[in-house]
Specification:
heterodimer; A: alpha/beta; five-stranded parallel β-sheet; B: 350 residues; alpha/beta; Rossmann fold; eight-stranded mixed β-sheet; three-stranded antiparallel β-sheet; 12 helices; 13 strands
């Protein structure tokens, strides 16, 4: 840089950026895209590295502590981590994080010895969990090791909630679910099944120190006002109730032509299940265009693979009933003529949304509800207006997904523990961050810094013909050890951070020159907008941070755009003064009892 | 140690006007010491070729022996190259240039390769004004043989060995100007903002262009008492004026204030814009350039930028009137024009 260029006077409206505070635990957390996007903040790269090493049980336990149901989530998670994956920004497809989670469950040894020890001396506090779904089970997972006595109540015959009643076995085999639920119930949870709580008032008489409500969003929305709904009633079912009935063996067959109304994941489960019950012609009908469907893209793909057509832009008008028998439906075609479209069918499944129902919570209890479906709760503590009652899972904020239910379960467990110990619920434990240098030799790292250009591995499935015949047969076979390792090695190790020590830097540009994705810049400081525009590759992705150093000898600052850093460690390898260092950041969420 | 560079590049990286991406100009992963100035120069070369733009297969990389001469492996992996004998790169470049005048010859050499063993070769290639770009990666020491002082090390400069250099140094730029080079520039590996346009201008100049780039040797010659260390160069460098290089056919988007810049047109229609700072000199005046270099040397200042520029000097081909066509494009009838032509030629000697 020629001398003149250093003489830079900031225009008065520009405030140069302050050096980035990397001590802030959230800074590096945000760089770990997958972990940051995960509601439960599972340390994804950490367990993926263990898979690549063949340490499946270790990888499983990292998951277990964080998301409680690795085997289940490895199959049915909504995977918010994958769209966030950095690989998706530099390569074609993100790492198959979800299916790698399944790898840990499939290939682990017996992990029972690694589960936390449950104290035989209880702490004297009794907690009730109403509803036995993922949120409640997470609360038990967190509080049992702390010595709480826990009673779980559920109206079903076994725990699992939504995961048991509505997720079809061809996506989630019962053994997997049973195994992971047993890890928690075997800690000594007292269970009361087939028991529907009809009055919270009566229930509170039992004198629990705290009550957690994790009853989910158990009611499927109906279309009660659509003409013909009552007359055709026998052939029209609410999707989630129908799925539950199938899973309990109450329903074993379906009509030849079935329409599934709705475009979410439940609709995808319904149509695929209908195929397995012998439905020859199953179609999905959605109101809007296919591109706007709520279902995850991979679930739509699975349905299409089973030859289930999706009819788009059709709004239901009426059920057509003839001689007391459903013969079809009329739809209004968006952008089409006035004439309704008739689609013949002899059975309809409605998958148009879910809601909670708190008819069993009395109004005079002091527990406020916003309306019939939503309780008034503190967003952080999940405490209701009745101090000893907490909410979690879908019951708290409406239908989301299993991983969110787990995250809310962890959060509620912290609150319940603080509450039972008479502590301030707002004074919550923070995340724990462990930073460890990855330096092993002169240019050697503890982590495998190589960036492979392997494509995303394909998950094999059983033949469609075979799987359609047996609703209990799992469609996906999962990765084997080899493809699992290949896929694991695609992980970019975003938790191994590039840490810059400005005092050591001699501004030789070696890091700038070697960086494959042109992330590193040395330039005169400016405000964020100005800096983002002036980088050698302008930093357009504002959801990703700029890492700004203190002022260097030439008066410039180092600015690194975190957006497409490959964490390959080449900057640190080429740095003559070790101003760059590769440091692993292990971020773990706060836990109850911490 | 990583021996491969990830394949992925920034997803927004645009192709240049010829449709090549920056990656098409890259080479293998460098095996030089971490922090070597030479790697920065390699990158500046990549950037200059990408920006101009040049077609990689129209470029020939020539080098001798030394750390500097290894670098052609690390850039322009899709160009021609010849790694020759120590100090003999100019001879090989001359031969290649005589055979095919249509390619761009990029000679890469070091201070040892140029100012010691190859000094004779260097002076004569300058005299002949061979149409090439001669880049010296100048670190003032023999890095490949553990850092002995080279002929460009300043008197008194002290490398890692700890003993000050006893001998007078050779200033390659001064030498080149004296010998009639038309384009002489000095850059610094730690300043790509200046180096990239310098290289682009040098590559567009017809005739011999010398770019002497001070390139600190981090391993042996980046000490506090060395005059070729990052710190020393930053503290003592003085640019002749910041510059912009606008290749032919490229729209000029910067607004130049009247009188603030010197406009230097090149033979192909490209233009160098020099911002006249305080005390800026006319770079087209040979005597002034020599004076300026001398006075800076006395004050222990390092002058960077384009030091001297003169268009229109005949290059070797023009001086010795060679074939307009590359030899490989000559047909049988050109090479063997028949007896009548021979007789005519013979007639000329009678």
């Amino acid at each position: 840089m020629s001398q003149q260029a250093y003489l830079f006077i900031y225009p008065c409206e520009i405030t140069p950026l302050k050096p980035t505070d990397i001590q802030d635990p959230e800074y590096f957390h945000k760089v770990i895209d997958c972990q940051y996007a995960c509601p439960a903040h599972t340390p994804v790269p950490e367990y993926i590295r263990l898979i690549a090493d063949g340490r499946y049980a270790d990888a499983y336990m990292i998951n277990w502590h964080s998301n409680v149901f690795p085997g289940v989530l490895g199959r049915i998670c909504d995977r918010p981590c994958e769209p966030a994956c950095r690989r998706g920004r530099v390569d074609k497809d993100p790492v198959a994080i979800c299916r790698l989670k399944r790898v840990t469950a499939d290939f682990k040894d017996d992990i029972r010895a690694r589960l936390p020890k449950i104290p035989s001396d209880k702490n004297g506090k009794k907690i009730a969990l109403i509803g036995g779904g993922p949120a409640s089970l997470t609360v038990a997972h967190d509080l049992m090791p702390l010595g709480y006595q826990i009673d779980l109540y559920d109206e079903q015959a076994a725990a699992g909630g939504f995961m048991r009643s509505q997720v079809p076995s061809f996506r989630l085999p019962l053994e997997v679910l049973d195994e992971e639920i047993s890890y928690i119930l075997d800690m000594g949870v007292t269970t009361t099944f087939n028991c529907r709580i009809t009055s919270l008032k009566e229930f509170l008489q039992k004198g629990y120190d705290a009550v957690f409500i994790g009853t989910g969003a158990p009611r499927g929305r109906d279309m009660p006002n659509l003409p013909g709904r009552r007359e055709g009633g026998a052939s029209i079912h609410v999707g989630i109730e129908w799925l539950a009935a199938v899973s309990y063996g109450h329903i074993e067959e379906i009509g030849t032509t079935t329409l599934v109304i709705g475009g979410g994941n439940t609709a995808m489960d319904c149509c695929r299940m209908a195929r397995r019950l012998g439905g020859k012609d199953v179609r999905v009908v959605v109101r809007g265009p296919r591109s706007k469907m709520n279902a995850s893209p991979w679930e739509i793909e699975d349905a299409l693979r089973e030859k289930i057509p999706i009819m788009e832009n059709l709004t239901p008008l009426e059920f057509v009933v003839k001689d007391g028998r459903l013969i079809g439906m009329h739809f209004e075609k968006a952008g089409g003529g006035k004439e309704p479209v008739f689609v013949a069918c002899d059975e309809v499944l409605l998958a148009v949304g879910q809601q909670n129902a708190f008819t069993w919570i009395e109004k005079d209890l002091g527990l406020k509800l916003k309306n019939r479906w939503v309780p008034v709760i503190d967003e952080v503590t999940l405490q209701s207006t009745l101090p000893q009652v907490f909410f979690g899972g879908d019951a708290a904020f409406g239908p989301r997904n299993v991983i969110t239910a787990v995250a809310l379960g962890h959060r509620a467990a912290i609150s319940i523990d603080l509450f039972c110990r008479g502590k301030d619920l707002k004074d919550r434990p923070g995340p724990s961050v462990t930073l460890s240098s990855q330096k092993m030799g002169v240019h050697d790292w503890i982590y495998d810094s190589r960036v492979t250009d392997e494509a995303r591995q394909h998950v094999p499935t059983v033949e469609t013909v075979k799987s359609i015949e047996d609703r209990m047969l799992e469609v996906e076979l999962g990765f084997n050890k080899k493809s699992g390792k290949t896929e694991a090695e695609r992980c970019l190790n975003c938790d191994v951070q590039t840490v810059f020590n400005f005092k050591e830097c001699i501004e030789c540009d070696a890091c700038v020159d070697i960086c494959p994705t042109s992330c590193i810049n040395f330039l005169v400081n400016g405000d964020e907008e100005d800096l983002r525009a002036r980088l050698s590759m302008p930093a357009k992705n504002t959801s990703q941070a700029l890492y700004v150093s203190d002022i260097l000898k030439t008066g410039r600052v180092m600015v690194k755009d975190e957006n497409v850093c490959l964490h390959c460690g080449l900057c640190a390898e080429r740095c003559p003064t070790a101003a760059w260092e590769m440091v692993k950041c292990f971020y773990a969420c706060a836990k109850a009892g911490q | 140690m990583t021996f491969t560079r990830p394949k992925f590049r920034h997803p927004d990286l645009p192709p240049n006007a010829l449709g090549y991406t920056r990656r098409d100009y890259e080479g293998a992963l460098s095996t030089l010491c971490a922090g070597c100035g030479h790697d920065s120069i390699s990158n500046a070369i990549i950037q200059a070729c990408y920006e101009l733009p040049l077609e990689p297969h129209r470029v020939v990389k020539m080098s001798g022996i030394g750390c500097s001469s290894k670098t052609p492996a690390y850039f322009l992996g899709r160009s021609h190259g010849f790694n020759s004998v120590h100090g003999r790169m100019p001879a090989i470049a001359t031969g290649a240039n005589m055979a095919n005048r249509d390619l761009l010859y990029l000679g890469v050499s070091g201070d040892g390769d140029t100012a010691s063993i190859g000094l004779g070769q260097f002076t004569h290639v300058v005299r002949r004004n061979l149409n090439m770009v001669y880049i010296v990666m100048n670190n003032g020491c023999y890095g490949l043989t553990k850092g002995q002082d080279s002929a460009t090390a300043d008197r008194g400069s002290t490398s890692k060995k700890g003993a000050p250099n006893l001998f007078e140094s050779i200033d390659l730029c001064e030498l080149a100007i004296q010998l009639g080079a038309g384009f002489v520039a000095r850059g610094f590996s730690g300043d790509k903002i200046q180096l990239v346009p310098l290289l682009k201008a040098a590559m567009s100049h017809k005739g011999f262009s010398l770019v002497d780039v001070i390139s600190p040797c981090v391993t042996f010659n980046n000490t506090n008492a060395s005059t070729k260390s990052y710190q020393y160069v930053r503290d003592h460098a003085e640019a002749t004026g910041t510059l912009d290089f606008i290749p032919l056919r490229q729209e000029i988007t910067t607004e130049y204030q009247e009188g603030s810049t010197q406009e230097v047109p090149l033979h192909d229609g490209s233009v160098i814009y020099l911002y006249k700072g305080e005390g800026a000199r006319d770079i087209t005046n040979r005597r002034a350039a020599m004076d300026s270099l001398e006075s800076h040397r006395v004050e222990s200042r390092i002058m960077t930028g384009i030091l001297y520029f003169q268009e229109g000097i005949e290059d070797t081909h023009e001086m010795i009137k060679t074939s307009q066509q590359p030899l490989n494009a000559l047909q049988q009838e050109d090479l063997c024009p028949g007896n009548a032509a021979l007789q005519q030629l013979m007639e000329g000697y009678r």
